[in-house]
Design a protein that fits this description.
The chain is α+β, with helices and mostly antiparallel strands. 29% of the residues lie in helices and 19% in strands. The protein has a four-stranded mixed beta sheet with strand order 1-3-4-5, covered by helices on one side. A two-stranded antiparallel ribbon has the order 2-6. Strand 3 (66-74) and strand 4 form a beta hairpin.
Length: 196
């Protein structure tokens, strides 16, 4: 994003070292998981939570207020992992603070892991967040840190309720849908080389 509206520092142009580091870490992770596969029960559910995000470009524009949660448990019901999808840019903190903070998703993940317990790993992933910004919770104060903590903590409480109401089952069939669309021809942003 060369015109970076959040003023977050750019990571620059492709780095072979960073690419290799990530590939090595993912390879190690996948190989470790393959050494001890565990049968699981999986369930997915969602909840509409209006007022948690807004369209940052158009005051009355569309928002995606669906929080979707996938729960992965062992066959005996112990929680292993939780995947949470919600559309809201992590933009409460500025560029300098982003160097060492996960913004609200970091607080969200830590809080939800604590609420669920059982050594559960929570992974937040962005929804279709193109124009979606978080809405600070009431009375969260002027501090961006307080907004991060309140938003992440309170959203984790909502997600915890969704988690506890999500039923799981064994022998799930994984499915996907693919739909191709025609996009305009690819072109570089005029200021692309200035971002590296």
């Amino acid at each position: 994003n060369p015109t970076n509206t959040e003023n977050i520092p750019q990571v620059g142009i492709y780095s072979k070292q960073v690419h290799r580091f990530l590939i090595d870490r993912f390879t190690t992770l996948i190989r470790a998981a393959l050494t001890n596969p565990v049968p699981v029960r999986i369930g997915t559910s969602g909840q509409s939570i209006p007022g948690w995000n807004r369209n940052r470009r158009h005051k009355d524009g569309l928002t995606d207020d669906e929080l979707t949660l996938t729960r992965i448990d062992t066959l005996d019901g112990k929680s292993l992992a939780v995947l949470v999808n919600f559309a809201a840019h992590p933009t409460f903190l500025g560029a300098k603070q982003m160097e060492f903070s996960g913004d609200w998703p970091g607080q969200f993940q830590r809080t939800l892991e604590a609420l669920i317990g059982q050594n559960t790993t929570v992974l937040y992933y962005n929804g279709d967040e193109g124009d979606q910004a978080p809405v600070a919770r009431n009375d969260s104060g002027p501090s961006p840190w307080e907004r991060v903590n309140r938003y992440g903590t309170e959203l984790a409480i909502v997600a915890s309720n969704v988690f506890h109401s999500t039923e799981t089952q064994a022998n799930n069939a994984f499915e996907f849908h693919r739909h191709e669309i025609d996009l305009p021809e690819t072109s570089w942003h005029p200021k692309f080389l200035e971002t590296g």
